[in-house]
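Amino acid chain
________________
===
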Amino acid sequence: MTLATLGFLGMFSAGAEPRTPPQANCVDARQIGGAEGISADTVALRLKDGKRFRVEFAQGCPAPENKLSVRGSRDGWLCAAPGESLVIGETQCPISTITPLDARGYADLLRQRDRQQLATLETLQVEAAGPSPSRGFRGTADYCVSVDAVRSWSETPQGITVEVSPKRAAGNRFYRLEVASGCPALANAQSMALVSGMGIGMVCGHPGDRMALVRPERELVRPGDPANVSGRYECQISRVYPVQDTR
């Protein structure tokens, strides 16, 4: 399975006008912009209009490496109806269910897949005594953000929103960072930097991914606390995903 977003080579040309789906779980096949193999019986689809879906097959299928087409759709809609399938390479994969996802759910799906793949690679690395697989790991802009792409940040009830360079984030301008157990130090932080726990230059919600915060010395009210000696704090990041501008 590839970690890169895959192009859609379907039987439709992109539609210029938005269309109303017959059901909430229907995929506009004309808008499919990328596919990610999650497991033998699951793919994640991202549409050109930003919508995301989880598609499960009735049987195991290969990962969508380079060619994906649609069969059995009605007026270009995939709704998990009888006879609908995705054709991956030469394999026809009957669709059993389609589930809409938000950006958070889509990010979770990809991150969990990549963690499983990394765990497998680490097991093989231990057995073969080879180089650490994390050095070659690269996530996607669907659930990772570059540590040096952040332009500004703000705190919201849903989490921390960071503004990044769209050119370095697949066109995304804003990301939400969720922290594992709150981050009270953020309220009075002078500065914030992202730190990759895997040393890959990105934070993705992996173990060790964190925000490094610096607070003004006058805010230090607990002498003797090691964190307060330098005015530095760290908050663990549990999730990363793109969002629309909510300011």
Observations:
- The mean pLDDT is 81.
- DSSP finds two helices and 16 strands in the chain.
- The radius of gyration is 21 Å.
- The helical segments are 103-128, 226-229.
